[in-house]
Structures are given as C-alpha cells and as structure tokens.
Design a protein that fits this description.
Shape: globular
Largest sheet: 5 strands, antiparallel
Number of domains: 2
CATH superfamily of the largest domain: Galactose-binding domain-like
Keywords: Membrane, Transmembrane, Transmembrane helix
Strand content: 15-25%
Order of helices and strands: HEEEEEEEEEEHHHHHHHHH
Transmembrane segments: 183-204, 225-243, 272-289, 301-319
Helix content: 40-55%
CATH architecture of the largest domain: Sandwich
Length: 341
Amino acid sequence: MKKYLSFILFVFGCLVLLFKLNEQGNQLLSLEKPGSSKELISTRSGELVKGDIIHGKIVSQYPNLGQITVRFNNNFHDSEDTVLFRIKEEGSLDWYYQVNIKTDQFQPHALFPFGFPEIKDSSGKTYIFEIESLNGQQGRGVSLDSQQPQFTAKSVFTKRELLSNKQLSIYFIYHKILSLRHYPSLILFSFYPFVFLLFLYYFPNKIQFYSTLTSKLVSTTIIKHHLFSILIILMILFSIVFTGRIEDINIILILGTYLLYSNKYKYESRIALFYSVCLLVLALTLLILGQQSSANSSSVWAYMFLWVYLIQQIGENILHFHSEITLEKYLSLFDIRIGLK
C-alpha cells in the first residue's frame, strides 16, 4: 500500500486544488488572467454612491472572453444598490454590452462575475469596462475590496469545442497549467502537506540528496531532528504573512501532519502549547503593527495548536501515552534553554 501512497496523495492534492480554484471562481473549463490593481480606478474611495463609476482596463490573454470578475466588499450590511456594467474594446465608440445588476447578489470579499456574450477573437486585445452605481447611498453601498486579485478577465470554453478541436485542447491544457502560477498559495497548500510532508513521513529512507549535500544536512542537528516541524512552521508563517487568511483544508492538513509526526517521534504536549504561545505573541505583535488580517490568522493558528495541546494532554493523562521528546529536549536542539516544567 505504501508504494501507492505518493500517487494517491498527488491525485488527492489535484482534487483539492481543483476544488479550491472552483471555490474562487476559476472553473475547470475557463482561463483567467488577473488584472492589475493600477488599472482599476474608482471615482470615490469607499462605498459607491449614485453616479460613482469604477473604471477598469485589461488585456485579454486568451480567446473566448466572456466574463469580467470584480471583487467587492459589502461592508457588513445589506446592499440595496443597482450597478450598470458595460464593456467595449479600447478605441471603440460604442459599448459592446451593458447590463444592470443588483448588488444584493455580491458576496463579501468574493469575485463577482459580470458575464457577456463571448468574444471569440479577444486574444491580445485591450478592453475597457465600467461599473456605475445607479442608486447607491452611504451606509447601503458596496466598495472595491483590496484583496488581490481585485479583478480578472475570464475566457470560457465548452467541453464540446475542446473535444472536437485537438489543437485548441492542447492550447487550453498548456495555458491552464501555466495560469496556476497566479495561485501559489493554493498550489503550496494543496500539494505540500500531502505529497511532500507525508511522503517524507512514510518514506524517510527513500529521500536522497546529492552526496555532498547529504553529509551537511545530516550533520546539522536542526535539520536532522526537526525537518518536519521546520517545514510546518514555514507553511504556517507563509499563510500568515503572504495570504493573510486561512483555509479550513489547510488547518486540517497541517495539524494532521503535525499530529502524525509528533506521534511518530513521541512529542510531549507542551511542545504544541509552546507553539500556541509563540503564535499568540506573534498575533499581538502584528496587531500592534496594524496588520489585522495577519494577526487574525496567527491567533487562529494559536487556537488550533491549543486544541492540539489539549488532545495530547488527554492522551498523556488519560490514555497514558508515553512521550520521549520533552519541550526542554526539543528546544535544546535549537540551542534554546527554558525553565518550564
């Protein structure tokens, strides 16, 4: 069974990636190009009121342009506005398409798709679009969300045209894979925990480095004893610093991997408590520095590791699990000395 584990984990990672992409509006049969925030300008900062217009411009990278998605914030209240969306090719005198949309459909911090008849020959062309508030009022309006990407251009393909055109299918698959570079955090958290960490957990003897590098790694105490925990810490810091938010699946994967690893090497529960305290201190520091989103993420991780501590406490005190690596021993390998008992 073990020899098939890496393949199973890879396939599972692919499914998770597809699910998360679809959750963000990137459907399986579409190609997206994120727009630059510099090309999205609003006549008003904050909530849109009647007459305010958002101006946007984007170069379509693919054919079949059929949607412009824009990320809005409903500012924690029900919106009662109607916006006019219109789009045209740059240089054209007439608008290609116009439609009125009620803003009560907008989900907070999510990309909303403004659809229009597909433009088959859109590849390489520049398009101008506007979103005008028709009935917006202060306290009842929506505003642009700062989360990236703020807007995208989406080209949509059908299963029939892909199956009937081999050249188009190759083009689509190539650019679909290439477009994943815009989602580094999703790729990291879809494959890294499954394939890399768990692969190392089950196959530590099959990971071979170049001989000159191997001797250096093995002789380094931290790498030798804490490779997994270091990788987990880096993944958590990545989610805090670069994404500013936490996906539920990432919590399950990272904490599940930590529990597997700590069970294999018999970590005591206070190690998880130590991580919880460190993450809480980090959250307070980030809050003082004004990084509220990252501070919230750090506090969630602190809470999760507190739960790990409680679970391991039950194992130690009720189920009588024996731990071999204490907190003092764990930290001593990092040349850290503490006086906790």
